[in-house]
Amino acid sequence: MNIKLILASLAALVTGAIFVNGQDQIVGRVEGKLQKPKMAVIDFRGVGDAQKFMVTFNTTLWGELSNSGVLEMVGKTFYPLEVPQQPQDFKPPTTVAGSRRGDPPRIQKNGPWLTDWSSPPPNADYLTFGYTAVQDGRLLLRGFLFNVRQPDVASSGLIAKLYFGSLDDDGAKKVAREFAADILQQFGQKSLSGTKIFFVSDRTGNKEIWSMDYDGSNQKQMTSYKTISKEPVVSADGRTFAFTSLIKGSWQIMTHSVETGKKLPFYNPVSSTIETPEFTPDGKHVLYAASLNGWVNICIADANGGNMNQLSHVRSSEVSPKVNPKTGRDVLFISGRSGIEQLWHMSVDGGDAEMVTNGEGYVANPSWNPNGQTIAFAWTRGFEPGAYNIFIMDLASRKILIQLTSNNGKNENPWWAPDGVHLVYQSTHGRSTQIYSVLADGTHPQQLTTQGNNTQPVWANGIN
Amino acid sequence: MRNLSRTPVLAQFGAAVFAAVLMVSAAGCKKKIPVPTTPAPTTERAPTPETPAPTPLAVRINNFTGEPRSIERGQSATLRWSVGNSTDISIDHDLGAVAANGTRQVFPSQTTTYTLTAKGNSAQDTRSVTIEVSSSVPPPPPPVVGTRVSGSEILAREGQDVYFDYDKNDIRADGRDTLTKDAEIIKRILSADPTFTIVIEGHCDERGSEEYNLALGDRRALAVKEFLTQLGVPEDRLKTISFGKERPVCTDENEACYQRNRRGHLAPAQ
After folding, report:
1. Does A146 reach chain B within 8 Å, measured CB to CB?
2. A181, A414, B53, B192: which has the highest count of C-beta atoms within 10 A?
3. Could you report the per-residue pLDDT of B112-160, keeping only the tens digit for each?
4. How confident is the model at residue B58 (pLDDT cuts 50, 70, 90)?
5. Strand partners for B116
6. Residue B36 lies in a domain
7. ipTM
């Protein structure tokens, strides 16, 4: 791995995060909260052999909570020296009479207490604590989440739960992630656990569809057509993925089962180019771009490709239909109607088409936030043709909330995570294109791929 | 030698290398490039009698030669002669009367003996020369390539790419000239092979998005197809495919390379 490249891209991302286009309260707009809850997380310790996996556990737990974007993590240097490992470690202070008559009563500390955490220096709102042990050859985690602003232990407890994993680093990661998911759920955060990122990789020599976990682990080849397969998309239930493939001299849309990997029936109309498939949120229809009358325009069909209808009838190229996941009634797409490709918006029946971007530069790759209001896309505005950066916009007001990247490389194919807080995108440095995840405010960028070139990521729901 | 024929170039090269190796290995030798000496025509000069010639002067054929003495069918040999004291000189095989000194190029199709007859003063002299004509059957020519393959070869050799402006699918003025030539080539190929089909590939430079470029390449291929059809190329012999930016011919990040990639390309259909 090229460390310099990664550092360069990190620096670029951080710079991009600061570049805000004059819009205030960016983070608040994206996440719907102005003030993030402050979270303290003790370093967990393990009993006996469990201790060997505690570095992995603590790193994973901190990373999951920190990367969620919904919490403000309180630095560990501010923590009190005496930390609790289970609720009964909390000892309420007692009030004792002054040592001499006339002295005011004083508060005597009897052990760790809630106010150790809720008052400065930590000044935390919440505390995550617990410990691990070995039980029946497995790793056991006792995990607790307390609201330390409450007056007593009884009313503080939010989570008190046991988690089990294998007695190794994988088991430590597993219990840390499950615990983190439960904690994040307390803050209205949809867990990314179980979600998958589908993408295109050329690491075998051909472009094939691959999938991986949201943190880049478990990378798995999903197709092997040994031609060009690209533009993956996954149905909302996580069970079907569609993509574009060059089969016998023409582009076609294919659908496969995520679980079995098997090809599903899909009827393609006669056309030299059919591409950019998209499922409606209910999974009953598929939209795509097809060349039927000499121009690639937007079409809609049943989930198996039947009952095809052309939605747009224009003498310009139109691709990348993306249906509003909240309403299922309106569609973002890329159109060259105005001369150069811009972002457009229309009703799912093809009416009310209007241009969303202002005509500057070239636009590509629209993606909806699950809230159905915030969108992300790639735009060359302010740069040369081909030098895309990622922008996040409030669709109703057309206001750019943030320019997520700001360098003269190529940053393309943003895709919102199911939690509405993360995005995944591709970035090209030199001749190498890799996939990164990042928070919508531009923080916590993580490179997820390294082998070959990896492009067109889509963040899919896990199978329920 | 090198200019005369194409096929033995390799052999000549090999020989040259071999010769060079010999020269290098022959340590201490004077470095002297062996110049192939053209063998002088061997004149078979008849022994000149030292004795004084009797009177009247006798008819005498000084020489009669053929060079080369051995040829392959279709090649020529040169007869050369010199005769003294005769005014009635002829060569058989319909070459007829000739002057006292002369040359004549002959094209015997088989081994032939030419006889020169010189007459005078009731005396005559004859001399013969035989030109050997190789009767061995020459090796057959390379097998005739199928018309389909040759159509592909013609297309690859003579067909030219048509170039587009950035984000555009209009055929430019230079593209019209290119396609007019391409149309003639295609018609020639199609008339020679009624099964031949051409696929028009639309390509883009690397700057647009993959998705939009696939649509743009589709449009470029169709524009080429429409133009060729207007010039009389049958529509049902033309297919189209867009490769977007999947198959660049170069990957430099400059306009010269971008232009080379923004192209319509003609290829035989699979």
Report:
1. no
2. A414
3. 899 988 887 777 888 889 888 876 666 677 665 554 458 888 999 999 9
4. confident
5. B91, B127
6. yes
7. 0.79
> Long-range contacts: B10-13, Cβ < 8 Å, 24+?
none
Please give the residue range of the domain that contains residue B171: 147-268
Assess if residue B142 is contained within a domain.
no
Same domain, B194 and B234: yes
Smallest Cβ–Cβ distance between B209 and the set A273, A291, A378 belongs to: A378
What tens digit of pLDDT does each residue of A282-322 get?
A: 999 999 999 998 999 999 999 999 999 999 999 999 999 99
Q: How many domains does chain B have?
A: 2
Neighbours of A454 (CB within 10 A): 26
For the whole model, what pTM was predicted? Answer: 0.69
Chain B's closest residue to A340, CA to CA, is: B167
Angle at A294 between CA A291 and CA A300, to 5 degrees: 30
Q: Which of A247, A248, A271, A273 to mutate to test the interface with B (most CBs of B within 10 A)?
A: A273
Question: What percent of chain A has pLDDT above 70?
Answer: 92
**DSSP code string of B225-268:** HHHHHHTT--GGGEEEEEEETSS-S---SSHHHHHHHSEEEEEE
Interface test with A, best of B198, B207, B218 (most A CBs within 10 A): B218
Residue in the structure block whose two tokens are 């105005």: A338
A257 confidence band (pLDDT: 50, 70, 90)? very high
Domains and CATH numbers, chain A: 3-31+191-460 (2.120.10.30), 38-185 (3.40.50.10070)
Residue A8 has pLDDT above 50, yes or no: no
- Let me know: does A425 contact A392? Beta carbons within 8 Å: no
Predicted confidence band at B29 (pLDDT cuts at 50, 70, 90)?
very low
Q: Which residues contact A131 (CB under 8 A, 6 or more apart)?
A: A44, A45, A46, A47, A85, A86, A141, A142
User: Do B186 and B213 belong to one domain?
Assistant: yes
C-alpha closest to that of A176 among A146, A145, A141, A144: A141
Residue B23, pLDDT score: 45
Residue B111 lies in a domain: yes
CATH of the domain at B176: 3.30.1330.60
- Taking an 8 Å cut-off on Cβ atoms, the answer to whether B241 and A289 are in contact is no
Same domain, B127 and B172: no
